[in-house]
Amino acid sequence: MAKEKDFVKEITPQSEDFSRWYIDVITKADLMDYAPVRGCIVFKPDGYELWEACQRELDRRFKETGHRNAYFPLLIPESFFQKEKEHVEGFNPELPWVTQVGDDNLEERLAVRPTSETIFGYMYSQWIQSYRDLPLLINQWANVVRWEKRTLPFLRTSEFLWQEGHTAHATAQEAEEETKRMLEVYTDFCETELAIPVIQGQKTPSEKFPGAVATYSLEAMMKDGRALQAATSHYLGDNFARSFDIQFLDKDNERKFAHTTSWGMTTRIIGALIMVHGDDRGLQLPPRIAPTQVIVIPIGPAKTRERVLTAADAIVHTLKVAGVRVKMDASEDNSPGWKFNEYEMRGIPIRLEIGPRDLDASQVVLVRRDTGAKEATPIENVAQHVQDLLTTIQNSMYETALAFQEGRSQKVESVEALHHVVREEKGFALAGWCGDDICESQIKNETGATSRNIPFSPPATMDTCVVCNQPAKHTVWFARAY
Amino acid sequence: MAKEKDFVKEITPQSEDFSRWYIDVITKADLMDYAPVRGCIVFKPDGYELWEACQRELDRRFKETGHRNAYFPLLIPESFFQKEKEHVEGFNPELPWVTQVGDDNLEERLAVRPTSETIFGYMYSQWIQSYRDLPLLINQWANVVRWEKRTLPFLRTSEFLWQEGHTAHATAQEAEEETKRMLEVYTDFCETELAIPVIQGQKTPSEKFPGAVATYSLEAMMKDGRALQAATSHYLGDNFARSFDIQFLDKDNERKFAHTTSWGMTTRIIGALIMVHGDDRGLQLPPRIAPTQVIVIPIGPAKTRERVLTAADAIVHTLKVAGVRVKMDASEDNSPGWKFNEYEMRGIPIRLEIGPRDLDASQVVLVRRDTGAKEATPIENVAQHVQDLLTTIQNSMYETALAFQEGRSQKVESVEALHHVVREEKGFALAGWCGDDICESQIKNETGATSRNIPFSPPATMDTCVVCNQPAKHTVWFARAY
Fold it and tell me: Do residues B161 and B266 lie in contact, with contact meaning Cβ atoms separated by under 8 Å?
């Protein structure tokens, strides 16, 4: 692919223009390209590889919690959407419709799925007859389309990739437990694999999923202080079960409606990964998710080249055997300095340099992408040392992101203070809220911030509504959001 | 999911009605359900799991041969299809068109992709500037839609899942080599993993991909003697490069058109797996692809239950550690006899029975799904013995399928003989062909058989055309096909 080797394209500093920085980085790191279809991108191999890594780690967790994958149709008859009123109203403006096949008009329009509650609901009504059929725990990896007005690569695209879990349970309690369980799965994935600290909480009614009883979300802070919703998990009550007639004969011989959930994470998480960890030099990938964890760069003059390469090959082999994802760049087209910049920009966690003087000392040099710290380590223990360093980097990246998030989060007791926090200090504001939509939308209108969620574990509990000063029903995180 | 435990649904014998047998098996084994969208199915977990296993093994091979995954948009502007004349004519009648979003009409219709040569072609023209950008080797895992007239679960559905590789090369020779290389990859996958013998060859002009210079295919014989095209690999010459202006500056400083290929395998391979190996008792899965390779069934009276379960748990653990995909059914709802039938129907390669008498003798009993052979083996060596037996079964299933295919394949020297072979003896007919479309379509009209491919290694070379008796240009396999 065109690597534009002939010139170094500068990355706009984050402090100058965060949006430009983001586009510069994802373009320069070759993660995506704009597609000739409105609001769509092509996930190029280096970008798609990040999604594959996320899929691997999420899929493992879904299977460990008893879910199985399946695949449901892309095209959904219009009548299905009509069955759940809130749902159709929520999605209708964004729905692409297939109306013709070849030269013939279809009798009923088919929507390109924006989400699959309706088609799962229909099939579940066929499959679920008895309490023995429950719980039914299915996940789907799929593409979905929502014709968004404003789009941004990875974060909001007309078509995106995601997984959507859809489960059915005998009781409300079991369904609620499932909803929370999957929020925990997403939390563990974000914090352990992506080194992204997240805030767990419940969406306010105005922000919940169309058709849900309750929507829970994970919110993460990007480096510009904006929030990004990293995952959602919906408790749907028996709303969809009633719309699609998902009934079962219970142990007590009574017919009952099932209780359902749905939960999803999308390719926008790639955007989060970039905006939580990236810096002015480019990407910064946490070791556990990085497709390449170590880049080996042989250095030194031509006369020592063969000797260095032989040693470097052996080290690559040793690291591979130890399970480290390692690559070597031994090309002679580019200087070591060019390579250092290139792989820093691509976010590879560790650079391993090896030259003739290192060989004389039976050592290699390891350079951390996150701190820039350099250290020499004996070749003898290189695999163990690299693995330890990868763990150190992973933990350190998480701690750094957490400190950043906490440092940019504040309690506020007035709309003015909220405005100041989200727009001047560029962070999250914790505020009391009376529960009235009007107060919520006033905040949005005056500050541009939306309610992110009602956190399960707020750092403080606020007594009065930040707008109307009435007693607060909830303590809510507000932020400008992607 | 509704397991219909209360009655045993009979499977129609293959000899009575092969099509009914097929539908009975995929329904009873819970692989799929019909979706409420014309010609679409839901891939249920047990069916989707087979696709996941295929994906794992194919993806590994694609990466080993230097390909990377990416993801391109689902919706393709109509104007893109118009750029390659043969291509649009070939696909137009089957294309679903998105014409509206929400309540608004689109300015240009968007096709739901039936295949992605056009959008890859467009992007490749942006990405490829120099010989340094070549070869470009990308694969995509995706859903595609083709509005087929007659549909059959897995084999031919309006929407299906597949992978599509799209590569670009500096020379015709490199592109042709790639086309053949991927045919070899598919061959190795079919024969090694699926135990399906395949016939490699080139499609006749009337059967090639719209827009291709040459299409190569793998053809497999189902148990009813019909052919199924298991994979195709297309050499596209510079046709798409010219339509989409994929040009590069070569080493000699001349601008040249790239040469491209595409190649794909779809979820119809699941149908092949079933129809090559299945029998009147149900599925029969080759060990290497089987999601579960061994089912452990504890037997014996209640008073020995605890002792047997403890031993069975230990064996399951031992097998798992050895890398065997094993499950145990210790439920008390069903009898051992019911379980034997159930897991035979589901095609699990080995049943491991363990009861109190076996324990007294420090042994377990292994039963092969393919031959029904039973043998006792010491618990001490159980993992090694199971692994050996899995290998034996895998090889034996391949040999059985190969013998079946060879036994049903014959040379023919007249259309009558060809008719007899494909309709009465239900097999493949090898015939000479002059190369004229008229003779090819006469065979189709008179016998219902189509040309499958011109094999690379025919068992014999035929001298005269089976229709017109003119000198044969090619020796061709003819068969009725799915």
Answer: yes
